[in-house]
Amino acid sequence: MGIKIIRLIFILACAIMGGIWASHLVETIVNPARATAGNALFPPGPWQMVGGLLGLAVAVTVLFCLRLVTQEIFEKLSPALVAIVLALIMGYGTAQYILGLWNPDDEVIAFYFTTTLVLLFAFMGISLGLTRASQWESLISAVGKRHAEKGSAKLIDTSVIIDGRIADICQSGFVEGTLLIPRFVLKELQNIADSPDALRRARGRRGLDILKMIQDGETKLDVKIIEDDPIDVREVDGKLVRLARLYSAKVLTNDYNLNKVAQIEGVEVLNVNDLANALKPAVLPDEQMTVKLIKEGKEAFQGVGYLDDGTMVVVDGGKDWVGKEVSVVVTSVLQTSAGRMIFTKLVNVVQ
Q: How much is the pTM?
């Protein structure tokens, strides 16, 4: 809707400027004595109409050329168009104010003074709009940022939504403040939910259900959907890192790659896997446990089983006992952000 309004303002501005220039140019050539600023605008005569049509043609041509490029590029130009329109209005208003104080006798001089000042302001608008587009975007987003600072803001990504554990974490009260959900994350979830692949479609729909649970649940979180979308960044991970820095927010994820990228960029990360691992009971070397072997391991004579919390247990010498419940003794524990693995050796077969 905003882009349509900008286009309409741009077309009207081109039509008005075309009428002014055409009428004044003709009057200056044909009858210089009648070439006044007032005649350049009103009443509308044939040359004003011709100039207005030429201005419309120029505006339509420019918009048509913009349609040939990507929508992202046009959206990037939107701040520039807004700045130009505002600059034209400010230039004309400033010129009229100065002319009211100056009150020159020659209206032709007044017209050229107004035109020069409008063009000067237009140039300033173009410079600010094109060279400072990112700063304008940051300024607009700062309003949302202040609202997000009710508590420590958390920026959520697609992987942690689909994972599902975030709903229970939010409802437990461990996460407080503002939960920011970017619009492009919602679009990604919708694309996954519309996938022709049944498993992928089920994961996407589960993610949408999880978001609904978070919004409707009794939590200490203020859930906000933000429209910010850094169009100069293609990857979703890069967009999340950019927004996290913009909002001074923490990234809530369980994606290993996003975790590393955010840390490199100096963005604080809350990894759900790290929280889950921290809540798992500690396992020490030489501790005995019982586990049911599910499958063979990658290495020779290994068997693999899982604890109730999903922790993988690798049993040395357990290959021949797959499908059996065995007693093992812990030899070492490998802890990473992706999870925990327990390496053991066989003691005896329970059943």
A: 0.48
Fold equal for 153-278 and 283-346: no
Tracing tokens 């741009």 back to the chain, one arrives at: 10
Q: Is the pLDDT of residue 257 over 50?
A: yes
Fold annotation for 283-346? OB fold (Dihydrolipoamide Acetyltransferase, E2P) (2.40.50)
What is the distance between the terminal CA atoms of the chain, rounded to a whole angstrom? 68
- Does 238 score more than 80 pLDDT? yes
H/E segment holding residue 232: none
What does the alpha-carbon distance between residue 78 and residue 262 come to, in Å, rounded to a whole number? Answer: 29
Can you give the pLDDT at residue 39?
47
What radius of gyration do the chain's Cα atoms show?
33
Of 1.10.150.20, 3.10.690.10, 3.30.450.20, 3.40.50.1010, the CATH number of 153-278 is 3.40.50.1010
pLDDT tens digit string along 71-86? 445 555 556 677 777 8
The answer on pLDDT for 145 being more than 60 is: no
In this structure, are residues 173 and 219 in contact, taking their beta carbons and an 8 Å threshold? yes
